[in-house]
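User: I'm putting together notes for a lab meeting next week and I want to include a structural view of one of the chains we've been expressing. I don't have a solved structure, so I'd like a prediction I can at least talk through. The sequence is below, exactly as it appears in our construct file.
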Amino acid sequence: MYSCIHCGSVYLRKEDAEKCVDQEVETPLIEVGKLLIDHSYDRETVIRCFSIKKAGHEISYQFEWLEPEGNEWKYVFTVNSNRCLKDHFSEQI
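Assistant: Thanks for the context. Below is the predicted structure for the 93-residue chain, given as structure tokens.
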């Protein structure tokens, strides 16, 4: 058995594990605490990145927004790769 040192995937063949290792590993494009403007639901909303997790070879970003009632930050959505983050927030990162 062979495994990828980046994502932990396990393979029966060494060649398959080496192919996985050779795939690009994402690095974060933003830092935790970064504020962005989301334009979903026909309105402008300030969101904040509160978590960055490694998901295989990709990065997963979790965002929250400041809830008007109670003035508390609440989870709102997750963006599951740098490509998706660029698609939605390219002008802000």
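A couple of points you could mention at the meeting. Strands lie at 2-3, 10-11, 35-38, 45-55, 58-67, 72-79. The longest helix spans residues 14-22.

User: Perfect, that's what I needed.
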